[in-house]
Amino acid sequence: MLLILISLIDIIAGILLMLPGIFPPIVFYVAVLLLLKSLSSLIGGLIEKNFIVILGLIDLLAGLMLLFNFIVPWFWLLLMIKGCYSFIVGMFSG
Prior knowledge:
By secondary structure, this protein is mostly helical. The protein has one domain (2-92). It contains 4 helices and no strands. The protein is globular, with a radius of gyration of 13 Å. The termini are close together.
């Protein structure tokens, strides 16, 4: 259930990156959530000695893009795919 909620943050962030300028008050809060999520993922990867933490890096870049209003045109697609993947895994995992 938690993975589904976290994946919804990715999907919302993907929408915000796809449509810059929409819902300005929400952008800051989603950016902070993504940065906290990326920090958690990166620290967890370091603790497990897993240095390839690409999903955490995607969250970090998306959070920074939203926070500083610097948008890479195709990056929203990567974030949406990650969010949909996490959502599907969350639906079918116990």
